[in-house]
Design a protein that fits this description.
about 120 residues, alpha+beta, 5-stranded mixed sheet, 4 helices, disordered N terminus
Length: about 120
């Protein structure tokens, strides 16, 4: 399972983030719901969005369950970690790709940065 990385200061995360871990048969899924106003990038990339939902799931049934936890009838952006999750979201919503990222893992250790906090729970603040 891929992890979710939220790049906001801890103070902003605790004020604008909700998350609920789902576990079923040793499979996990986690939706992270952010207030779109707290991220400069998201405000510019998705100007009409009220929320930004990050969906991370390794089982289709859990992805579908996560979709039921996203606010209905309000504009938002959904960020997905896999093409499989995209296909499941497409079952329920008309979607349009706005941007895409490639992520890489390095075996090189980087020096610690006191401006970066690493938390196991994405909305811990």
């Amino acid at each position: 399972m891929l992890g979710i990385i939220v790049l906001l200061t801890p103070q902003r995360i605790s004020q604008a983030c909700t998350s609920n871990l789902l576990v079923s048969d040793h499979q996990m899924a986690e939706p992270v719901l952010l207030d779109a106003r707290v991220s400069d990038f998201d405000r510019k990339a998705y100007p009409g969005a009220v929320y930004v939902a990050l969906i991370n799931s390794d089982r289709p049934a859990l992805t579908r369950e996560l979709l039921s936890r996203i606010p209905q009838g309000r504009g938002g952006a959904i960020k997905l970690s896999t093409n499989e999750n995209r296909d499941i979201v497409r079952e329920k919503y008309l979607i349009e790709r706005r941007t895409s990222y490639l992520s890489f893992t390095s075996v090189v250790l980087f020096p610690a940065d006191d401006q970066v906090a690493v938390m196991l729970h994405p909305c811990a603040g």
